[in-house]
Design goal:
By secondary structure, this protein is mainly β.
């Protein structure tokens, strides 16, 4: 039999030693959460949600081996049986750091650290491909920043970085909603704030949105620190609002690529696109629109 719901409202720690089965939602508020029953032992039979959060905004969170007071390790993640409509980790008003190391989820997951000074750092490969459904990934930190230094992958789920982001690690980071081509249609990849490199022209970004996913840069790209090479391997449409990068290459596009004028704070020129490497600009799309006013 199954419980209707399971709620822990505040605890220093919460441990589930066996199976936990509900027909609706699970919500646990504790500064340590352990699921020790084994793989696929925490489940909802009614497409409910699960929320895992600390007791206070200033408590740090570690996911998949990342450092944090609230430690959701690989064993805890593996215990979550596919079927949740949404997994939420963190607090919308969180003010600490969430570190996400290598993690594989089977359902859509939202990471929250959206209070003043709240940060999210993705240090290991993150995906929602543990099950066959199209799980979305949403990273919502404060306007301070979300730091991404490892690849993020879905199998037809969207990837959303809600606020300002920085690409880190000194190499190439890939965001892929096609699961390496296994789900060709892909899904949207969007950045809701500014996007910068950690070191100017050092970090590269590759985006794979498939034949059905749009790529959207809402804020300025490379205003504080110029991005390295930006490569869009596939997309339905692309929208930018001011890009400064070493290069911008779009190899395929099913729709319209729109380059809008950006009001840059650094320098004296507002511009739609500025590159400074030999590769320059190469865009393959059905339609290209440049709005420079």
């Amino acid at each position: 039999s199954a419980l209707v719901a399971f709620n822990v409202t505040s605890a220093s720690s919460a441990t589930v030693g066996g199976s936990l089965r509900v027909t609706t939602n699970i919500s646990i508020t504790a500064d340590e959460i352990d699921f020790n029953g084994g793989a696929n032992t925490v489940e909802t039979t009614g497409a409910g949600t699960i929320t895992l959060q600390p007791t206070a905004d200033n408590v740090s969170i570690g996911v998949g081996g990342g450092a944090g007071t609230l430690d959701l390790n690989d064993t805890d993640i593996a215990a979550l049986k596919g079927g949740f409509s949404l997994i939420t980790i963190g607090r919308a008003t969180g003010t600490s750091l969430m570190t996400i190391d290598t993690s594989s989820f089977g359902d859509s997951v939202t990471f929250l650290m959206n209070g003043a000074s709240g940060d999210i750092s993705v240090t290991g490969a993150l995906n929602t491909t543990a099950d066959s459904d199209a799980g979305n990934i949403i990273l919502t930190a404060s306007a301070t920043t979300t730091t991404i230094s490892a690849n993020i992958t879905t199998a037809g789920g969207t990837i959303t970085v809600t606020n300002a982001a920085v690409i880190a690690g000194g190499g190439t980071v890939t965001l892929d909603t096609t699961n390496g081509g296994g789900t060709p249609a892909g899904a949207a990849i969007s950045f809701g704030g500014t996007l910068d490199a950690t070191t100017a022209v050092t970090e590269n970004l590759t985006l794979v949105a498939g034949t059905g996913g749009n790529v959207i840069f809402t804020g300025l790209v490379g205003d504080t620190r110029r991005m390295g090479a930006i490569t869009i391997s596939s997309a339905l449409g692309v929208t930018t609002n001011g890009v400064r990068a070493a290069s911008l290459v779009q190899t395929t596009g099913q729709g319209t690529t729109t380059l809008n004028l950006g009001d840059f704070a650094s320098g004296t020129t507002d511009e739609a696109l500025n590159t400074n490497a030999a590769t320059g600009v190469s865009i393959t799309a059905k339609t290209i629109a440049i709005n420079d006013a």
